[in-house]
């Protein structure tokens, strides 16, 4: 029996599924089977699948009438022989080490029911612009699934017994059926263990399932309602969550989901699309935080246009005026004076942070040829962003120094040498820079600081 079953639902994906299957054949972990569920395709998909099945005995095909994504996943699971399951969407790919790393996580954490990874978002033709999605936490339980789906399904390996103990994907949901499924598993006690490494690669396509915003909104609100109430489908629910999350948390979860969908609709169709979502959500936007809307706009507008956050300048030229007008309308809708101004201020702050990160990474890449080691001084958000952006890109040692962690102090990497570059990552870094200077390190030669790229002076 194989150790891993990979289930790939396929519906009219003749042009895209080849890259998905190629990524399976390139796995360093070879003990897998792939179950390709042809969900009633009317294009050349069956011929493409047959070609791969003839080439590799690990590939099997199941054909059925079109029943949509959830039913196709369920059919594939019914045929799976392995004790570990990965659901991979046609058109998306996984890195060559994905199965090896995720299997390793489950081996290392026998208490975990699932292992997950970070993910990378690429353009319709595979364009890679370093858009990396990182898990908010590396251990997820039921509360983490009550607000949004914190994992990427392509990078999620699940123990089959966990799936067998639950009802499978809800075919009545037009979207968010994976979120609904993972939340139910978590309520039944499934612990998710993760890595930030981006092992799944999600390809943006104009007609993808995740762009049907009205259906996303409706389905997501259904999932939120279910996670904040008793769910008879959860037969082994943790007693602490038998009645779901506390009812008073539901409002904030709904506001967050409605805000994301509204931002995505604006990115797709401008103010008219966003207004249609507003009409659908009713009074759920009362109390909307401008910082929350800004955070969603930064992600949703590029995503809706199959672009990247780095394209914000050109996107802003096309949408800036319309965005300002629409935000003033939102200000009137939520009844909060200054809402539009504060939202735009948060958008600009996000953009400055993103530009600073780009500049830091570019500088490291430019200087790495004469450095045998890059040391990230500080282990906060900025350091984690740099680690993800540099992962696999540089053939040098990448280390992290954190004075608050025993054995990880910056003293380990001092005195400074010319074949090592220290990057001081916090925004407030005067004391850290002073410590490096006191040890003989020269600013610009032996170390650079985050504030070098923000126009602020390093003390």
Outline the structure in words:
By secondary structure, this protein is of the alpha/beta class. The chain folds into three domains: 4-227, Spore Coat Polysaccharide Biosynthesis Protein SpsA, Chain A (Alpha-Beta Complex); 259-353, no CATH class; 371-453, 3-Layer(aba) Sandwich (Rossmann fold), CATH 3.40.50. Helix content is 42%, strand content 17%. It contains 13 helices and 14 strands. The strands form two sheets. Strands 1, 2, 3, 4, 5, 6, 7, 8, 9 and 10 form a ten-stranded mixed sheet that branches. Helix 8 packs across helix 9. The longest helix has 32 residues, at 250-281. The relative contact order is 0.08.
Main β-sheet: number of strands, strand sense, barrel status?
A: 10 strands, mixed
Proportion of strand residues: 15-25%
CATH homologous superfamily label of the largest domain: Spore Coat Polysaccharide Biosynthesis Protein SpsA, Chain A
**Share of helix, binned:** 40-55%
Q: What count of domains describes the coordinates?
A: 3
Q: What is the radius of gyration?
A: 24 Å
SSE sequence, one letter per element: EHEHEHEEHEEEEHHEHHHHHEHEEHE
Question: What name is given to the CATH topology of the largest domain?
Answer: Spore Coat Polysaccharide Biosynthesis Protein SpsA, Chain A
């Amino acid at each position: 029996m194989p150790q891993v079953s990979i289930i790939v639902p396929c519906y009219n994906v003749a042009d895209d599924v080849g890259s998905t299957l190629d990524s399976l054949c390139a796995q360093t972990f070879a003990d897998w089977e792939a179950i390709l569920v042809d969900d009633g395709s009317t294009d050349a998909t069956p011929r493409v699948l047959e070609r791969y099945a003839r080439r590799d005995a690990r590939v099997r095909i199941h054909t059925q009438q079109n029943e949509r994504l959830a039913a196709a996943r369920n059919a594939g699971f019914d045929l799976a022989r392995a004790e570990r399951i990965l659901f991979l969407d046609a058109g998306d790919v996984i890195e060559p080490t994905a199965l090896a790393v995720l299997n390793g996580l489950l081996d290392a954490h026998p208490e975990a029911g699932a292992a997950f990874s970070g993910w990378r978002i690429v353009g319709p033709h595979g364009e890679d612009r370093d858009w990396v999605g990182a898990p908010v936490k590396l251990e997820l339980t039921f509360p983490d699934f009550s607000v949004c789906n914190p994992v990427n399904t392509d990078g999620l390996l699940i123990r089959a017994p966990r799936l067998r103990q639950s009802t499978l994907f809800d075919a009545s949901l037009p979207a968010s059926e994976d979120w609904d499924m993972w939340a139910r598993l978590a309520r039944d006690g499934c612990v998710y263990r993760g890595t930030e490494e981006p092992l799944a690669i999600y390809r943006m396509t104009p007609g993808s399932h995740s762009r049907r915003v009205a259906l996303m909104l409706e389905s997501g609100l259904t999932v939120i309602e279910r996670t904040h109430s008793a769910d008879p489908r959860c037969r082994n629910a943790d007693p602490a969550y038998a009645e779901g999350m506390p009812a008073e948390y539901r409002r904030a979860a709904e506001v967050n989901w409605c805000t994301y969908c509204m931002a995505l609709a604006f990115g797709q169709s401008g103010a008219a699309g966003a207004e249609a979502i507003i009409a659908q959500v009713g009074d759920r936007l009362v109390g909307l935080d401008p910082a929350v809307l800004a955070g969603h706009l930064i992600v949703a507008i590029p995503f809706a246009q199959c672009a990247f956050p780095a394209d914000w300048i050109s996107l802003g030229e096309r949408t800036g005026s319309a965005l300002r007008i629409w935000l003033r309308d939102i200000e009137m809708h939520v009844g909060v004076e200054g809402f539009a101004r504060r939202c735009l201020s948060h958008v600009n702050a996000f953009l400055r942070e993103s530009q600073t990160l780009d500049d830091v990474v570019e500088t490291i890449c430019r200087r790495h040829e004469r450095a045998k080691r890059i040391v990230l001084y500080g282990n906060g958000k900025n350091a984690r962003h740099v680690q993800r952006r540099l992962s696999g890109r540089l053939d040098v040692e990448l280390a992290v120094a954190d004075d608050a962690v025993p054995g990880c102090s910056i003293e380990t990497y001092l005195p400074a040498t010319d074949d090592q570059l220290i990057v001081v990552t916090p925004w407030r870094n005067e004391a850290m820079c002073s410590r490096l200077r006191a040890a003989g390190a020269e600013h610009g030669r032996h170390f650079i600081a985050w504030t070098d790229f923000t126009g602020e002076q390093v003390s």
